[in-house]
Amino acid sequence: MIDAIRELAGVSGVSGNERNISEYIKGQILPYVDKVYEDSLGNLVAVRRGEGSRVMLMAHMDQIGLVASFVDDKGFVRVAPVGHVDPKTTVGRPVVFENGETGVFICGSKEKKEPELKDCYVDIGAADRAEALRRVEIGQTASFLSNTFETGRKIVSGALDNRAGCYCLMETLRRVKNNSCELYAVFTVQEEVGLRGAKVSGFEIAPDVAIAVDVTLSGDHPDARETTAVLGGGAAVKICDRSAICSRGIIEDLENLAARRGIPVQRDVLASGGTDIGSVQLLGKGVQVGGVSIPVRYCHSAVEMADKNDIEAVIGLLTAYLEK
What we know:
Elements: H1 2-9, H2 19-29, E1 35-38, E2 44-48, E3 54-60, E4 65-71, E5 77-82, H3 87-90, E6 94-97, E7 102-107, E8 120-123, H4 129-135, E9 141-144, E10 149-151, E11 154-157, H5 160-175, E12 182-188, H6 196-205, E13 209-217, E14 235-240, H7 248-261, E15 265-269, H8 277-280, E16 288-296, E17 304-307, H9 308-323
């Protein structure tokens, strides 16, 4: 598990620039599906033929990051956010641009208690503006570099949102033997900037059931908001978030199945944020939606933390659901 997540987290895929991570995932899942294709927006769609309902499982493969917006005379690269970037948890972190150039994300204002992105820049060690522009083009995206490691039964890494979800979906495709449905496993793009990829893919696939595989905020550390999910509590069955209220039938199916199979589960009620099901639920005549989430501490930082047992529980529940 740790090696697979380390590889996934090590492939850059900032929203709108997911080609590298898409190619990596495609190479890993080809032996386990009947068909793989990329749609017009860049979503990676894997199909496993079967009888019964059309089920769409979604895990977004994009990550938050930065985009070069301006270079000053001294060669410092000003940046804009791609997704929700919090300077408090990212300042001082190394970054890598899509062409491989590296630098450090720095906040120039020492007077403000709360750093703001407008005061931040990336230092790539350039002597002047001309050198910086030879090395980094305006419009190039950058992701935060981080290490992936284990501490106890926990995994720490950047981009667990949502490479941990991608791992769960990839591993589910590998493990499921006889899916009693027409399965579409979609690795979506541009979730972090408005659930965009899922809307396009959901419109094309027109599923009967759509389930998002994503992370959720954990409420078990000192600075956490009051949320229901905790690390080590099992797969988090989503009840609702800011984007969607899940279908009661799917919630009951997942929880009853988990009870029968001895899979640990907890409930996920997320007061802020959303998931891909928010873009799919209202398509066409409406879609039944659900979510199976991985609780994560320190979300959208370079040191996100998840529990290996929770990840295993998510894979087990998804596999059981598809075989049911």
